[in-house]
Write a structure and sequence with these properties.
With about 200 residues, the protein is of the alpha/beta class. It has six helices and seven strands; from the N terminus they run βαβαβαββββααα. A seven-stranded mixed β-sheet has the order 2-1-3-4-5-6-7. It catalyses: ITP + H2O = IMP + diphosphate + H(+); XTP + H2O = XMP + diphosphate + H(+); dITP + H2O = dIMP + diphosphate + H(+).
């Protein structure tokens, strides 16, 4: 029987990132778009990891299939870690990227240039029926600008400046972003974990 994995998202782009990697293990990738009756998981956790685990375990239990879920966001040092797990809805429940950016810029208007450090953080949870859920994470370090720059990407990308590149995340090409992003760094840890999981499974 063909092995399957559900990527707990309705975002086709996220799933596409993982499809190539899973093909190495002969695993078919599906998303929540393939499961219209999937439970809408409420993110009640207090950390990125807790939210990712909640999503992965809920969907995995519903369909008895290996499930991977992520939770990610922007962590700003001068704002005591905000917007953090509330990144997508920082300015309200409507998930408005522009309003979220405006709120961050307003809150940081008096923060000196030397104190505007931040990072994007991604937690991935891998839930497999009958096994303990595993989490991995990835970060991308940067600084918060005072105004938007760049038209690519989404979310807080236009105000997230990467010193090594001399550009904001929104000024990078999609290919370059996918090499250095927080999600890419978390995803890159999956092959070794999956190899270990399937090796263990083969021994039973």
């Amino acid at each position: 029987m063909e092995k399957q994995v559900i990527i707990a998202t309705k975002n086709k782009g996220k799933a596409k990132e993982l499809e190539k990697m899973f093909s190495t293990f002969n695993i078919k990738v599906k998303t929540l778009l393939d499961f219209p009756d999937a439970i809408d998981v409420e993110e009640t956790g207090s950390t990125f990891e807790e939210n990712a685990i909640l999503k992965a375990e809920t969907i995995s239990q519903q369909y008895n299939i290996m499930t991977i879920a992520d939770d990610s966001g922007l962590v700003i040092d001068a704002l005591d870690g905000r917007p953090g797990i509330y990144s997508a809805r920082y300015a309200g429940e409507d998930k408005d990227d522009e309003a979220n950016i405006d709120k961050v810029l307003a809150e940081m208007i008096d923060i000196p240039n030397d104190d505007r450090s931040a990072k994007f953080y991604c937690a991935l949870a891998i839930a497999i029926p009958g096994k303990e859920t595993i989490t991995v994470s990835g970060t991308c370090e940067g600084e918060i600008l005072r105004e938007r720059k760049g038209d690519n990407g989404f979310g807080y990308d236009p105000i997230f400046f990467i010193k090594d590149k001399g550009l904001t995340m929104a000024e990078l090409s999609s290919e370059e972003k996918n090499r250095i992003s927080h999600r890419a760094k978390a995803v890159n840890k999956l092959p070794a974990i999956l190899q270990n999981l399937f090796d263990l499974g083969d021994q039973k």
